[in-house]
């Protein structure tokens, strides 16, 4: 088949030995490129005094990457600015944290233009181009301006907000209009797809031509829901590795006679960490007989430290964890461990496997692959229980989790008590259903569904899931 060119803000090649601590998107893209020959293009993560467009090309783990360095001002205005101070909070319904600055807007446009000019010479006539996430929404528009006629698809990994939220963005019409330069736009869930369609109907004099096809701004666009998954086969192998077993044994030893509750999230206000701590605090207050029977471990690597909102949330969480431990700890036990560092994926597999409860409670999330990894890491004969936010995209695929409103400390506390008391037959029944979903709708299913739809091969493309 034609080459697949994957484009994302950052190129982060996994080594394939479990050592990497890269996120779900990086792992999913690497898996896609191992199946289809091609190139992964994006920012190198490095800055330069003057942008030259010079390419750095390397091949790691069977994946070829072409990366470009950006200027420091690009990093400030495009990445820290428009992407993470404007679009990220807005798309996660945090209008109060969104910064609207024209310099950010200009930097976002400039970097997308630079990406397009640098990428264009690499594109061959039969290549298929797959662009990822909110950093690069206008990229197809810039490539079309350079004469690129190839099929170009876009996948949004984060939520698409409701119409009344989206219109808070200055120049929102121009941003959405640029999406109509793609041939296919994919979303994590049908809910996000419908929110996009509602915007087009309301703001672009649009219409639904047929299911999965919208008209707006005088053009036609294919849309669909393509829920992302994990590489279930690879994760099953990883959880049996020596390092995973050692970590599982370590966690079991550290929590002897106690049940481990685990949360693993990037340090971000969208992940609901403050609300999660408050829910755990309420569980401890309401269940004094269960206090010494549990230990909560929250792993939250620091990210985007240059953005003020991330600095502030770390301080608040430090205070909350100190308060909880100060109130409930004893000389030989503290209820909460709060860790700000990365762990290898095989180590996380061991931690998940030792946990009686996986606590995944984002306030809003495009999908959330931690929930799926937690399920994949469980012992089928004695599995743990997944507590999952109703506002994670994964909730649509995982109804046998204990679904909660993460904004309610009472619901989180009640779910923790129920999970810890759940008998083995019910845990096995729920886990079996969850694992079947994780296996069936894995990263290969996501990749193949999107790529076949982009190629325009309905005979091979799986239908977009209604979730």
Summed up, what is this model?
With 467 residues, this protein is α/β, with parallel strands linked by helices.
Overall mean pLDDT score? 92
| Uncertain ranges | 458-467
Residue share in β-strands: 15-25%
CATH topology tier name of the largest domain? Rossmann fold
Notes on the structure:
By secondary structure, the chain is α/β, with parallel strands linked by helices. It has 2 domains: 239 residues, Rossmann fold; 208 residues, Rossmann fold (3-Layer(aba) Sandwich), CATH 3.40.50.2000. Helix content is 43%, strand content 19%. It has 16 helices and 16 strands. The strands form 2 sheets. A 10-stranded mixed sheet has the order 3-4-2-1-5-6-7-10-9-8, with helices on both faces. A 6-stranded parallel sheet has the order 13-12-11-14-15-16, with helices on both faces. Strand 8 and strand 9 form a beta hairpin. Helix 10 packs parallel to helix 11 and helix 10 packs across helix 14. The two termini are 30 Å apart. The C terminus is likely disordered.
